[in-house]
Every structure is written in structure tokens, then in C-alpha cells.
Amino acid sequence: MTDTSRGEYASDELQTTDVHRIGPTMPMSSERASGPVEAPDKTVEEFVAAFLNELNFGQGVLLSRSTINDQYLALARTVRQYLMAGWLETGVQRRESGRKTIGYLSAEYLLGRQLSNALLATDLQDIADEAMKQCGIDIAALRAQEIEPGLGNGGLGRLAACFVDSLATMDVPCIGYGIRYEYGIFRQTFEDNRQVEVPDSWLSLGSPWEFPHPERQVRVDFGGRTETYTDDQGRERSRWIPDWNVLGIPYHHMVPGFRNGTVNTLRLWSAKATQAFDLQIFNSGDYAAAVRAQTFAENISKVLYPEDSTPQGKELRLQQQYFFVACSLHDFIQNTLPQDFDLRRLPERIIFQLNDTHPVIAIPELMRILVDRKGFDWDEAWDITRQCFAYTCHTLLPEALEVWSAELLGRLLPRHLEIIYRINKEFLEEVRETFPGDEMRIRSMSIIAEHPERSVRMAYLATIGSSKVNGVAELHSQLLRDKVLPEFSQYWTEKFTNVTNGITPRRFVFLANRRLSDLITDKIGSGWVTDLERLRDLEPYADDADFRAEFAAVKQANKERLFKVLQARDGIELPEHAMLDVMVKRLHEYKRQSLKLLHIVSTYESIISGRMRAEDAVPRTFVFGAKAAPGYHMAKETIFLINSVAATINADERVKDVLSVAFPANYNVTLAEKLIPAADLSEQISLAGKEASGTGNMKFALNGALTIGTDDGANVEIRQLVGDDNFFLFGMTEPEVEQLRAEGYQPTSYYRSNDRLRATIDLLAGGHFTRGDRAASAQVVDNLLTQDPFMALADFQGYLDAQDRVDAVYRDTDAWTRSAILNVARSGFFSSDRSMRDYLDRIWNA
Ligand code: 26W
């Protein structure tokens, strides 16, 4: 039976393991109502047996005939087996305990690869390595086979993924609800230095981490009209007569806690046409129309919107939002709660956390369920509803606050619009009682805006309908209170609070930076992985020369690993010994990649103009990673310019090995895991008051990079914790920004008065980086000179000065490494476990 004809794995070992003769290892009869079946033992032998079982009986191939993809799928399903018992057990416990559940409602989950995380959670990494070796397989190639589920745009989606990781690790009941986009965030490629987007078909090679449950489908209605009627108790009631609907099919994902046996669930909804939907048309004989109808329905979960700051009032986007929210509420109320549950006690069992405004339509949806379907009085329903929601705001940009036109909302969800109007009316009456005659205030607090068209301000609805509202870093929460929702924060001082974001140390330190993790564990034990404040115990080692040497060696090894990845992935060659200066995040003007570019060009200009000798410069490698929203013109022009500058500088012998610029395409979680551990310098240079928190900043600090940054978002807290000596601060503060704006900001005055800035901009504008084509750089340059909406020119000199301080410290290896160690030791606060504890204590009361 054994096929030894092909050479790929022709070893003796292979012949004995090629066909697994034992059959399924899971005893089918041991399925008990009281508890789940056993997982295979954690031994190499059992792992190999389970793997070959999956390959032969799951995937239906012989090892000798299997492709890498077959092997990857079988490996994934093997690891799944080890999680399964915990998953089933967690489900039983959750049902029996009656504990309050966190329903995390998020339109995005930027999960990253699953295999490595599952191996980490189950502590199977070494066993799996050895087992694959025994099968003649290179596990690294299998890991590389996985396409990460990129079901999010950036910070907000990654935060959701970190939060569900932490809740599972803390054994807190949580269901993550979201959308199973068939296409996640686009894959970025570059053609002629310009971004080209390619669809991300992450499901194309099979998706071993999801469990579809078509039998648990939920129907979701849209459109139509409402009518009033009198019920049998003589009460005036409303009902919705929708005119079309779709089905939501749940796909379950495991969310394993870190080595604690808990496995929570992420439930992602996929849209499917109802039979009635196309049958009706089909029966009319128009086959093509029937298929079109199906496509229409299934479009709802087809693709993630790649905009991460300017919501376009797209109908499909609202459909997505209502679709997943309606499915999720129905799922919890009908399927998760006991059959006869008394909904008056709903707040004891669930708190829905609204991840930004995207799921806020859940508030009128719960009102509709309670009032229209379950017969509650309005007031009682409203009291319940408000206790069931809490709202997190993730932005300060006014243009990022979602507003839906009343026309569109009324057309798609007529009953919800009515409910929103009533919520608004009763709320405004309440405000009127407190502030009689203050019509200005009333208008500014209304959910409904009248200009430029009648529309629904979702952030206001969220605030009114929630028990708590939080920002994501201290500064952001303050600005949220003072600038974004001032009337509301005066009206309800207690409702507003801060929870500073965090990141999971499992993925972003333990998994991404194994070398550093081993070094830390060697000194302080392994408790830090689930209790990150313990990193404090590293502080004394900052003064230990041996430790510093080991720490620096880890950094160097991580750089070499990164360089290999960039070489294989992008064909990028980088010098071995240079400071690695990294800016990775979405491309947005407020984040100021253009300011970073000015610094690079300025350094380059200093050398080629002879003002500075190349030998005197600290060698630096600049790395960018950034996707631009496909419709964001200025962001795409900035990408073009960065790539153009990179090509020119990398080809210029005068700066060889002194300055290099790398812009690997398609920055994603997978690349972040390689890049961040290798970085020396973390660029967090947004205009003060614009970056709500940032979370990349935390990942870098925890991996021993020093930050150069403005007083913005969580940078403020990072600096406070790591200390001024270990952070390169520059730039205006938020009040200074406001003041300058009030005075009338004039970017050209900086251009005229600052010689280095002028030389830099002139070089950029003169076509030096665009083969003499001045027009090619004109849009970014003109934007800076005439508008500069995020005041890059005002902060330019401060930034250069701070970069000089960076160079000075970097020249002193001991001082640098000492600071880097202190960054790690003092950043334990930024664990998402701590964020979760804050939510549990101050928001969820769970
Ligand atoms: C298209 C509509 C839209 C608008 C805003 C989509 C997505 C957004 C998000 C709010 C953008 C986002 O990811 N915000 C980021 O959230 C992170 C987690 O809290 C913060 O760390 C970042 O500062 C914030 O920009």
C-alpha cells in the first residue's frame, strides 16, 4: 500500500507511518451527555497517530501522496482535537453556571494565524515539531501555508482579537460575535510603486478552524413597512412587515485560553439566501434573476469594507451591521439562554459590548424584540436595554463618527427608525426637564441631525442607550468627554470612563518573540505570560552587563530572522548592522507617515549635499508597513512617494549601508509578529489629539523597542510608565495644536523659515525621487505646503531634534539596551488581561 515511488519524503520512517492502520483514536462510544470525550495524549506518538488519522481518514490522502496543504489541514485538525474537550467542557460549564456572559459585538476581528496560537495555547509546540519531523515534514512550511483570517482593518479589529484571547485566558464567559467575511482586508501589492489591491480569498484552501452550523440558521428581515394594531388586551402596538430577508449561518471558532483548558467561542455569521427568496422568482421562470437574487443576499457577508476612518454611508454596510447584530441577539436570547428565561433579568446574564458604533443598531433591535415580540412596556424594555449595552469609542476624528441618513435607515429598517425616533423624543423630553428652555442644548444632544440631511448620529444613540461609555486611553477618554460628547458627559458624569487598551502578551511576546520570552522566563519564571506586571522583576537586570548582552543578542537574532523573512517574502536585502526604525500602521494623514518621510529625506539630503559625512551618520534601516483605504487618494499618493524614495535611496551608493528603506507590501498580523520583535525604534508620531490609543506602540515597547512619539493616545501612558529617559518625546501637545489652529496655521511659514525643511521639501518636489517627474510628488508636497491638515511641518524641527537624541543614545549601546530592558520591564500594564479586568470591574460588573 505504501507508495515509495515519489521522492519527496522517501525515508524508512515514512514507510511505517505512511498509512495509519489503527483507525480513529477517538472512542465513539465515550460520548457522554455529562462531559466531553478525551483528547489524544500529549505524546509525540499519539500526536503522530492523530495526525495520520486526520490525513488518511479526514483528508483522505496518504502521507506519501499528500500536498503541503493536505498536511497543513491535517495538522490543524489534529491540534483542534486537543482543544475540543476543553471547548465542549467550557460550553457545558457556561450553560450550567448561569454566569453573566460578555457578548462582544464587533464588525471586525483581525485574528492572525490560528495554528501557532493553538499550538501555544495547548503547549504542543515541541510535540508537534517532533511529530512532524518523524513524519518527514517541515512544520515551518505548514505554518507558512496558513492564510491569516484578516477580518479587520487595523487597531479596532486587532483589539477585539486580543480581548477575546484575554477573556478565555481569564476563564470569563464570552461570546465574540461578528461577520464571516468571505474576503477580508485586501492583499496589498505594489506595481510601479503604487498600491494595487488584490482580493483576499482566505477561505480558498480550506478553513480548518471554523465549524459551520447551518442547522442553527437565523432569519434576518429587511425593508418593508410598519403598521400599528390593537392587541387582544387593547394595547396599541406596532409591527414590522418586512419585504425581504436573508439567513445567517453561524460559523464557530475556538478561542483557546492559555493553557487553562478554557475554550470560548467566536461566532461569525455568514449570509445565505432564503429559499423563499429565490424560489419565488425561480418559479416565475427567470432562472438568471433567481441566481441574481441569491447573489444579492449573499453579498452581505461577502467583503470587509476596507475604510478605517471615513465611513461611507453605503447601504451594504448598514445591511452588514444589522445582519450580524440581529443574528447575534437572536442567538443569545433564543439559543443561549434557557428556554423559559425571564427576560426582565436579562442584564444579569449578558452585557453586549459595542465595539465602536458599527453594532449600535443592536440597541433599537433589542427594544424591538422586547416591545414588539415579547410584549414588554416601552419603559420597562428601555430600562432593561440600557443595562445590557456598553459602548467603546475608538476615534476622535469627526469624520469617523458614523451617521446614517434617515432615508436609508427608514428604507432598510423602518421599525428601527421609529424606535430611534421614540428613544430620541423621550430622551430630549428628559433633558428639557433638566434644562428648560435650553433649545440649543436640546438640538446638540439630539440623535437626529437635520443638516445637511436628516440623519441618525450613531455615537449619540450608543451613548444614550448604554450603561457606560469609554474611550481607549486616558487622553482619548478626556477628549471624548470634553470635545466629542461634552453635553452628554456633563449630563451623565458617571457614565463616562476610560479603559486603556492592551495587547495579548501570548501572541505578541510569547509567540512572536520566543527568544526574549525564554530570556525573561530564565530570569523571573514564566508567570509573566498571564500576569504581565511581573515583568517589573526584570528591572534590576537593566544594570546587569551579562543580561544586557543577552538581551542585545536576542534583538540581533530577531533582526536576522526578519531579514530572512523579508528576503524570502519580498526579495528585500537589508544590511545586518543598522538601527531598525519601524513605522507600521494604517496609512492615514493624521498618523503622519509623511513626517517620517521628511525625516528620511532630510537625513539623506544632509549626506548627499555634503553637510554630513556618511561615516558620521548612525546607520539606519527604515521599515514601513501600511495599507491605504482603496479610495483614499492622498494616502495612496503617500505610499507611492515612500516607495519612490525607498528605490532612490537604496540605489544610491553614497548612502549604501548607512540608509536603507524597506516597504514590504501587505503588512498584516503575520508580518507584525516578525517585524515588531526586531525593531529598535518605534515610530508613534501622530498629531497630538488624533490617535485614540494606538496598540502597536504597546507591542513595540513590550518587545524592547524605544519609542519616538508625540504626546498622543496611549503614548502618554507609555511614557509615564517607562520614564522620560526611556522615551523620545517631541511635538506639540493637544492644547498647543488647538491654539495654533485657532491662530491660523500657515505651513509655508515653516517652509520659509527652516532651511533644512526647505532643502528637504525642495528635494522631494524637484523630481529627484521620481525620475525627474515633478508632478509625481506634487500632490503630497502641495498638500503639505498648502493644507498640512495634520501639521507635519509644525512638528518637523522637534522631530529632527528628537531623532538626533535617538542617534546619540543609540551610539551608547549600553545605555540603549538598558532603556530597552526598562521598556519591557515597565510595560506590563499594557496587557489586554489588565484591560479586561478594568472592563469587568468598572463596566461589565461581572
Ligand atoms: C469606516 C468606518 C470606520 C470608522 C472607524 C471603521 C473603523 C473605524 C475604527 C474606529 C478605526 C480604528 O481602528 N480605530 C483605532 O482603534 C484602536 C483600538 O482602540 C486604537 O488603538 C486606534 O488609536 C484607533 O485609531
Automatic annotation (TrEMBL):
Organism encoding this protein: Calidifontibacter indicus
PTM annotation (N6-(pyridoxal phosphate)lysine): residues: 699
Enzyme nomenclature, EC number: 2.4.1.1
Annotated family: Belongs to the glycogen phosphorylase family.
GO CC terms: cytoplasm
Region annotation Disordered: where it falls in the sequence: 1-37
Entry-linked PROSITE patterns: PHOSPHORYLASE
GO biological process: glycogen catabolic process
Keywords: Carbohydrate metabolism, Glycogen metabolism, Glycosyltransferase, Phosphoprotein, Pyridoxal phosphate, Transferase
Cofactor section: pyridoxal 5'-phosphate
Molecular-function annotations in GO: glycogen phosphorylase activity; pyridoxal phosphate binding
Cited function: Phosphorylase is an important allosteric enzyme in carbohydrate metabolism. Enzymes from different sources differ in their regulatory mechanisms and in their natural substrates. However, all known phosphorylases share catalytic and structural properties. Allosteric enzyme that catalyzes the rate-limiting step in glycogen catabolism, the phosphorolytic cleavage of glycogen to produce glucose-1-phosphate, and plays a central role in maintaining cellular and organismal glucose homeostasis.
Name the UniProt record assigns to this protein: Alpha-1,4 glucan phosphorylase
Highest taxon, organism lineage: Bacteria
